[in-house]
Amino acid sequence: QVELVESGGGLVQPGGSLRLSCAASGSIFSINVMVMGWYRQAPGKERELISAITSGGSTNTADSVKGRFTISRDNAKNTVYLQMNNLKPEDTAVYYCNAITYSDRPRPHREEYWGKGTLVTVSA
User: Fold this and answer.
1) Residue 26: pLDDT band by 50, 70, 90 thresholds?
2) Residue 67: is it exposed, middle or buried by C-beta count within 10 angstroms (0-12/13-18/19+)?
3) Strand 93-103 vs strand 118-122: parallel, antiparallel, or unpaired?
4) From the centroid of its chain, how far is CA 116?
């Protein structure tokens, strides 16, 4: 029903910036994309939540990236962005887009979707 496609990853020097994008596509007329967010998984570590945003604009961001990363969302485009500034080597990870949806068809229920991930490498 919903496909998430990330883009914007790449190689950047410490202190640099990148903007990640994630677009949700599919037949979502009857689906409310309630929350979209970004997770990351660094080498040898578990996947962790970085930032999330609701359709109403409420955000939740991990302390490790507050002040450096900013999440935003375009509800009309069903797209979420992550502006990453002052990147550090420890930000190196695969970044995954996540979406939580709600629909009352055929019955009220939630669904969760994941993108395939985009690699961010921060290195001099």
Assistant:
1) confident
2) exposed
3) antiparallel
4) 11
